[in-house]
Design brief:
4-stranded antiparallel β-sheet; 16% strand
């Protein structure tokens, strides 16, 4: 029997609200570089692209051993107990390194949930705290956390980071964004895209706000301990006496394993106020797939055997790159770089009023790519922060210096002070 109906298939609202503008701009940016210049991509935060950052030999050995013994059996939704215990030991050991207090809370395997990357850990945290119509506070600028929020009908409300004060949280603005529908605060430290690393005193200020309003914190610490020489990182949970914290991290950045998709949630619940949240997280974990069994079984060996020198060497190299970029960009007319303290990025301000032919940071980065074949991400829409661009610092030093020199050439071409071009 014919119904004479036509196909009418429409994507869901969730899918439409899940667009990743970073990926979209990345794909668009591959078009129309200058054919006379080699493309130097300073966009994606993947340290493995050029081969100058590699996983530790101990990681490969742990993976080989796990593969040889893996039975590829199903496991519990939160991950193998032995692997979760390894994460707990990793967390406790690192916490002890930064705190001499005997009051630092200890975690066990019961406080750990393994996830397919830190991204899933964050999405699960957002979903467990907020329902449609409620909101989560996010920093501005920040990574596109909103793609894990908007599709579920959760509102993202943004508090400002101050570029003139090492990207610290504007505490007054943070507090002003809280309303009766706010369910949690997201903190990213060390930060993407800014490379911020917060002091103990500043983190305590943030905790005071959370305590005053009885709001839990989701702490994105995927760049934990990825700080430059002389800069101290403090896990937020080591400083909290009362505020419950879900810490999200993984192997992606510190262990140079972005495609491994191994992450975890640490439930820091000193005063036992997250029992319902913990049950909710386990329920959500039951709907998702944890990382593949071989990676889960390799996790103890990776965490226990990767030497400190591996981490120190990587952070030192990135810090050298950061200083090179900063020193060149500060000589570029119309560009104000902000020196980072950790992670893999540097943000630079574009004085758009000095570039009369360029009206937005997106237009700046597009024209830069077309003319100089240098790819950088604009502050907007990628990080919800107009007038800036972000540079990834894991590119080999010779290439990153060449890229910055090209940026300088580009700026000298278009910069005008008091209506006078530098080339005039």
């Amino acid at each position: 029997m014919s119904t004479n109906k036509e196909w009418n298939l429409v994507a869901s609202e969730l899918s439409k609200k899940s667009e990743n503008s970073i990926r979209t701009i990345w794909e668009d940016s591959k078009n129309c570089p200058n054919p006379l210049l080699k493309v130097i991509p300073l966009q994606l935060g993947d340290p493995t692209v050029f081969g100058n950052f590699k996983v530790a030999p101990e990681t490969r050995e742990a993976l080989r051993n796990a593969l040889e013994t893996d039975t590829f059996s199903y496991m519990s939704c939160e991950g193998l107990e032995s692997s979760r215990e390894a994460v707990a030991q990793y967390v406790n050991t690192n916490n002890d390194k930064v705190s001499s207090s005997l009051d630092v809370p200890r975690v066990s395997h019961k406080d750990i949930i393994l996830t397919s990357g830190c991204a899933l850990a964050l999405e699960m945290s957002f979903r467990v705290f907020a329902m449609p119509g409620e909101n989560i506070l996010l920093p501005r600028p920040c990574y596109l956390y909103s793609i894990w929020i908007h599709g579920y009908g959760i509102e993202a409300r943004y508090y400002d980071l101050d570029p003139t004060n090492e990207w610290q949280v504007d505490i007054k603005h943070l507090e002003s964004m809280i309303n009766d529908k706010t369910k949690a605060i997201l903190i990213n430290n060390p930060g993407n895209p800014c490379g911020n690393v917060y002091s103990k005193e500043h983190l305590l200020e943030i905790l005071e706000v959370a305590e005053r309003h009885k709001l839990p914190i989701i702490s994105d610490e995927v760049y934990e301990f990825f700080t430059f020489p002389g800069v101290q990182f403090y896990p937020l949970a080591t400083l909290s006496k009362t505020v419950p914290i879900l810490t999200c991290s993984g192997l992606t950045k510190r262990f140079i394993m972005p495609a491994a998709r191994m992450g975890w949630i640490v439930i820091n619940d000193r005063n036992n106020v997250l029992s319902d949240i913990k049950e909710g997280l386990l329920n959500i974990a039951g709907r998702n797939f944890i990382p593949n069994s071989t990676l889960v079984k390799a996790l103890p060996g990776i965490l226990e055997n990767t030497p400190q020198q591996f981490f120190d060497d990587n952070s030192k190299t990135v810090s050298i790159h950061a200083l090179s970029v900063f020193n060149i960009l500060k000589t570029c007319p119309g560009i104000v770089p902000i020196m980072p303290k950790g992670a893999m990025y540097l943000m630079a301000k574009i004085e758009l009023d000095k570039f009369p032919e360029i009206d937005t940071c997106l237009a700046f980065t597009q024209r830069l790519f077309h003319e100089q074949s240098v790819g950088v991400f604009p502050g907007f829409p990628c990080f919800n922060f107009p007038g800036f661009f972000r540079i990834v610092l894991t590119v080999p030093e010779d290439l990153i210096i060449e890229a910055c020199e090209r940026i300088k050439t580009f700026c000298e071409k278009y910069y005008k002070a008091d209506g006078q071009s530098l080339e005039a």
